[in-house]
Amino acid sequence: MTARRPTVYDVAERAKVSIATVSFAFTRPDQISATTRERVLGIAREIGYMPSASARGLARGKTGALGLHSFDLLIERPQTREPVDPVGEAGGAAPDPGASFVPWDDAGDEFLADPRAFPLYVDEVQRGFELECRANGRPIMLSSGSGTTTSVAESAGRVDGLAIFPGPSAATTLAQVSLKMPIVLFSTPPGEDGHHRVLADNAGGMRELVTHLVTDHGITSLGFVGALRVADYRERFEAFRETLTDLGVAAPDEPLDDSLLGEDLGYTAVIEALRAGTLPRALVCASDQLALPLLDLFAAEGVRVPDDVVVTGFDGIFAGRLSTPSLTTVRQPMEAMGRTAARLLMDSSRSPSAEPAVVRLGTKLVVRASCGCAA
Amino acid sequence: MTARRPTVYDVAERAKVSIATVSFAFTRPDQISATTRERVLGIAREIGYMPSASARGLARGKTGALGLHSFDLLIERPQTREPVDPVGEAGGAAPDPGASFVPWDDAGDEFLADPRAFPLYVDEVQRGFELECRANGRPIMLSSGSGTTTSVAESAGRVDGLAIFPGPSAATTLAQVSLKMPIVLFSTPPGEDGHHRVLADNAGGMRELVTHLVTDHGITSLGFVGALRVADYRERFEAFRETLTDLGVAAPDEPLDDSLLGEDLGYTAVIEALRAGTLPRALVCASDQLALPLLDLFAAEGVRVPDDVVVTGFDGIFAGRLSTPSLTTVRQPMEAMGRTAARLLMDSSRSPSAEPAVVRLGTKLVVRASCGCAA
DNA sequence: TTGTACGCGTTATCAC
DNA sequence: GTGATAACGCGTACAA
């Protein structure tokens, strides 16, 4: 079954033409006579020939694909169990002869797909990227990897342009690799590296949010939750402070709690403040993913949100609609960000001259229950 | 900036070694002396060299990547507006010099990310595929395309194995292309084409659902909504009939309504029955995506669900949790299906001898409000 | 341990 | 309109 894949030579031989003709039949249909074209195409289909993208990419100098690389900021939840083994015994009522049957496993489908785990910030951006590429017939190369230079490089070798979700280790790694192709960095402040940027208007969004809390709710005691190591969070914190100052409200010099996603989500500082009775009236979290577990924590501790303390997020992921109370947040236009990145890549691989672009996308305040607005 | 991408020759020249040594430095680090290796690696990093995946794939005969191809069954919603143009004027409060600012646009972010549009069946399967590939350090090639043979072929040339979401046109197209690599077909009944299969236990799930409706709710009048052109739907309908027959309930010979996703979602037959007052007590939909708009329709018509008519779905997508009433359905283990496909591909590219596998994965009945169970 | 030379499957540039 | 043939960049026997 898995014979060698047919090549142009195979087709050429059986069609009694040269390999050039075979190639033309596919790429320049009007340069050869209709009859030979039909014959060649027929043979090709018959023997299951399809051009090798590797060879084509090598010859043409470009692959046609766009890449999306994640410096592991999306934390793979520990797999508690062995992945499904398809070669297992045929249990259950397997109707297909020779089929293996894998029984339902609650653990394998966390809580019937936990919205806290799946459609996250990156997933929605990725989707936008995919949609735009799809609309333009561009294949997408998805890759991920941590610190090592090679992981980026490896995927970079397969594509004509690369969009990157930066992680903590991204900065140093990217600095080493001076990638010779168009690059878009998501959620990274402008810099001198010549790469494009696509990011949300963190400052504007945070300003709207804080203004809402202060002006509409009359809150004058606010704390920030989030680590400043993340560039987006840093921008949000800065805007948090500036807005408070502008509104004449005391602004903290630093975050109340710098719990970081995936590392320690202990909220130790929050808990400490809770015990000490020094919790601010509102906790402004740097992201939804930081805010949602905090809601759990407060629920477990008997602290009522928003009555005892107001909690807000940032990003606008799905899970924020389902939490109790639902989460007041700032929505990033994630799909648009993904689309923008893809277009940037396609444009600049067409005209490599262009200056590196920095695109900020506007955000939107989404008022829900956790600030005390909705029921 | 975008000079030619450096090659092994560039590195070799500057490092005063041969290209073989450069290659070894990357692929067989222990075959060469530490000093030369360091020197080579240093130069490589310095000039921004990265191996070309095209050339490597060509030389090695395999690319290392796995593919996921969608025959456009995921319907791209028509883009009502022009995609975001990053080169737009710098409006708003753009803090970055030279940056473009794209204001928030409600239309560009449908209803703050509509769960009806995004995490669908295919998205969750894709996610499983991604997770498994990521865990094994395998890049993923995402592609999509309709009828034409070339679209599958094109992506097929880039990967060592291909998982496929079949669409209406898939069968004929795939028959023409006898792809010479491991292939996994999702949600496709077993066949003689030598491809692997990964699908849900449609029959078991439907049996559970129908039994619940008949036994627990005492319903004896049921109709099926869904077109039999879709293989999954066909299996579900068959099980629907068989279960009813087994339970001694009259089973319809054919679906009440064969609205098909993306084509006409008119539910003409349902509406007709509604007008005529001949609506069955329960409408069993072939999928959630078929059931949810039906809920809308009934709401608009003043028909109460589940009081006047019971509606159920199949798949267990997110949106079914958010609808009013929430949707009783059968959950497919989509992440597990994606993971299984990836493993199948990796295993069979290692040992091409293996028989084509058929893996059925168990489903789970999810009882919610639309059948009258939950409040 | 390192260098030489060939092959991988296409595309593209020439001749014919 | 069609056929030789030279790149394309890398892996790898084989030789040194």
TrEMBL record, chains A, B:
InterPro entries: HTH_LacI, LacI/GalR-like_sensor, Lambda_DNA-bd_dom_sf, Peripla_BP_I
DNA damage is among the record's keywords: no
Keyword Transcription regulation: yes
Keywords: DNA-binding, Transcription, Transcription regulation
Residue span(s) of domain HTH lacI-type: 6-60
GO molecular function annotation: DNA-binding transcription factor activity; transcription cis-regulatory region binding
Source taxon at top rank: Bacteria
TM segment ranges: none
Protein name, per record: LacI family transcriptional regulator
Species of provenance: Agromyces atrinae
